[in-house]
Design a protein that fits this description.
Order of helices and strands: EHEEHEHHEHHEEHEEEHEHHEEHH
Radius of gyration: 20 Å
CATH superfamily: Spore Coat Polysaccharide Biosynthesis Protein SpsA, Chain A
Distance between the termini: 64 Å
Strand order of the largest sheet: 8-11-9-10-12
Largest sheet: 5 strands, mixed, barrel
Structural class: alpha/beta
Helix content: 25-40%
Number of domains: 1
Shape: globular
Number of strands: 13
Number of helices: 12
């Protein structure tokens, strides 16, 4: 199957990034990317998709934010060209912003009713096709120099003609943060599993009884990486959940729908070669920025600056 479309959920208000998110959408917070260009977070995520073969992206936003995004993208581009006339990096970033806007669509989530509901709001954009799903507050750095994390999922989904969920082996004390699944390894594919059960943010006790994966090292579980390739069947399931008001903690969640999807049709999980960075957690943006720098053209600069900072701290006399 061909995966041409991607959905990025970005309707959350970014409470954990207050007060910055009170001024600008969290997806517009700036970071220096691997190529040395300063970009809004959403652009870095979108380029993950474009570099993986995606042609068109839909961002799920809160009411009114679609106009804000368009206005900000246009303003950024115009300001770069006027403030840095003829400067190569500014011209390149303006070009990228303009290209992003051309390939961008929006879907509005009228009310904050959960992650599953946010994905459901993009159903008209998806229009019956398989699609790549990304989070609006996660960055990914691939362990393969020439293949993005999203590309890894897309390649497997296209080859096996099915849903593929990105996962990462995660230590037991962290699994309460993530959707976690069990499955059986696919023969001759050591990093691929056929999904059996998915539970959202389980306790270690529940995981030990329900989610052990044969062959995975002790104390580790397969947790969501933050990206998936989903078939349009997911919308049939979400339709049912919304119609029947199936909620978890008061919201329409995606993980129960993904569990049902795995019961209805072939669903694989791929141990993605790469690292996820959650901007929403404490120091998340700082860790993501350092990781981007270490993986990019400014590697030597950031290493020397970090070393200098540590040495200064160690040499400071005690008060």
């Amino acid at each position: 199957m061909q995966i041409r479309k991607a959905v990025i959920t970005a309707a959350g208000r970014g409470v954990r990034q207050y007060p910055a998110s009170d001024t600008v959408q969290k997806a517009m917070l700036p970071l220096v990317d691997r190529d040395g260009l300063t970009k809004p977070l959403i652009q870095i995520i979108a380029e993950e998709a474009f570099d993986s073969g995606i042609e068109e992206i839909c961002i799920v936003v809160a009411p009114g934010d679609d106009a804000v995004y368009r206005r900000l993208f246009q303003a950024f581009s115009e300001n770069l060209l006027s403030a840095f006339k003829g400067v190569d990096w500014a011209v390149e970033q303006a070009r990228r912003l303009n290209e992003l806007v051309k390939r961008l669509r929006f879907a509005v989530q009228p009310r904050p009713e959960g992650y599953g509901h946010a994905v459901w709001c993009a159903r008209e954009f998806v229009a019956g096709e398989p699609f790549l799903l990304l989070l609006g507050d996660h960055l990914y750095i691939s362990g393969e120099p020439d293949r993005r994390c999203a590309r890894q999922l897309i390649d497997l989904a296209a080859a096996k003609n099915c849903t593929v969920m990105g996962v990462q082996a995660t230590r037991e004390h962290l699994i309460s943060r993530y959707g976690t699944l069990s499955g059986r390894r696919v023969p001759d594919m050591p990093h691929v599993y056929e999904v059996e059960k998915i539970i959202e943010k389980p306790t270690p006790t529940l995981a030990e009884t329900e989610l052990l994966v044969p062959g995975l090292r002790a104390g580790y579980y397969l947790c969501f990486f933050g990206m998936h390739v989903l078939t349009p069947t997911i919308f049939d399931i979400l339709d049912e959940h919304i119609r029947n008001n199936v909620r978890t903690d008061g919201e329409i969640q995606l993980t129960p729908a993904q569990h049902e999807l795995a019961q209805r049709e072939k669903t694989l999980a791929l141990e993605t070669k790469g690292t996820r960075y959650d901007i929403g957690v404490r120091y998340g943006a700082l860790k993501a920025q350092i990781a981007l720098a270490l993986a990019g053209v400014d590697r030597e600069l950031i290493l020397s600056d970090l070393l200098e900072l540590i040495l200064q701290r160690q040499m400071r006399p005690e008060a």
